[in-house]
Amino acid sequence: MPFKAGLELTELQNMTVPEDDNISNDSNDFTEVENGQINSKFISDRESRRSLTNSHLEKKKCDEYIPGTTSLGMSVFNLSNAIMGSGILGLAFALANTGILLFLLLLVSVTLLSIYSIYLLLVCSKETGCMVYEKLGEQVFGTPGKMIVFGSTSLQNVGAMLSYLFIVKNELPSAIKFLMGKDENFPAWYVDGRILVVIVTFGIILPLCLLKNLGYLGYTSGFSLSCMVFFLIVVIYKKFQIPCYELELNATSSMLSNSSAHEHMCKPKYVIFNSKTVYALPTIAFAFVCHPSVLPIYSELKDRSQKKMQLVSNISFFAMFVMYFMTAIFGYLTFYDNVQSDLLHKYQSKDDILILTVRLAVIVAVILTVPVLFFTVRSSLFELARKTKFDLCRHVVVTFVLLVIINLLVIFIPTMKDIFGVVGVTSANMLIFILPSSLYLKITHQDGSKLTQRIWASLFLALGIMFSLVSIPLVIYDWVQSGGSAEGH
């Protein structure tokens, strides 16, 4: 699976290659190039090393050619797995605040732009020989590049962990109440989502995060994808089982007593603009981010080539586009304007075994996925601090502190739309738009034959910057206007 293999690959590729002064001057061999890779052991003397271009020297440090063993089909599954996440739960909410046509336009646009950003990333990887995103940033922009990539990927992973724990906070109380035979208004402290998420974090997730390596946990991503497919099937089924969601008609019977009002409530809208529309694009962007996993999956691809990996990404993004659109449209047509940023939370599990089953499946999947993401963030943090040698005390302290911070954020963040909004306009924007285009422009800045491609990359970069300049102030404005109120909680 991508998480485990990607981590092992990172360890291999972070092995340092001896610098110039450590290479023996006694050999009479000449530089040899095999499969386009520069093999440092054949560099004979200081003069021949000086004759190499700076880019080749950098590539020598980054490259370690390891043949891939993963088939194209399995690579498609792995990348689809990397794309799929909690973002799928917020897409119906995004559709409800944009309308069907505008949402479809945004979804198609983000899908195509994401595929293009993968293309730029693969070109950069081919030019530098780097198969690790942080290494690629360091090769092109030095330490600042490494820091920016680290910050973006870590924020994306932290955002994913927050959204997963938010699902636990939202869904676990309902599941426990159902199993106890209690109704949704049961007030006991042990069914408080905030308390439950702390218990789950330090009772289940913490012990898993304290493991020296993840081992079999890397394979839980397959279970997570299966749960999301199951969730989609249930969403489609429930649309036909629930003809029109009635907005607590008993409480609002005076408003909805006439048939025209009821008909209006259940009528789909095609273009909508309101204060929540601003969250649509960040939510969609959050749902499509998989860029930190692209290079590890690429490195594992059998008989790998840029063209073959581009085919993998095209198939994966198309499959996720179909799955995302179906989830959003059927979720919206079930609840219409009353859909929440966590679609699963709108389904009541009382006397409904199917909803309870999908709820428990998603809860288990996200609980087992959190340690995988946490391991990646912690490893990147230690790598950045150059503390790669295992130290038990440091390992435990950092794990505990990070989990405490994450839990505080989960407890005090009111809704999932805030997570999708913040991560979408920051790290997702950086990973999809700004970083791939910036890396490409830097690498090809002296290549006159790529003028047309550089113009497109420049426009892509400008689009990402404009997205940030527009979206971030609007999200902040909505926070101020709404006063941090939670919708539906």
TrEMBL record:
Location of the Amino acid transporter transmembrane domain: 69-473
Membrane topology according to the record: Multi-pass membrane protein
Segments crossing the lipid bilayer: 76-96, 102-124, 145-167, 187-209, 216-237, 278-299, 311-333, 353-375, 396-413, 419-443, 455-477
Keyword Transmembrane helix (UniProt): yes
Sorted UniProt keywords: Membrane, Transmembrane, Transmembrane helix
Principal subcellular localization: membrane
A single BP term in Gene Ontology: regulation of synaptic plasticity
GO molecular function, one term: L-glutamine transmembrane transporter activity
Record InterPro entries: AA_transpt_TM
Protein name per the record: Solute carrier family 38 member 1
Organism: Anas platyrhynchos platyrhynchos (Northern mallard)
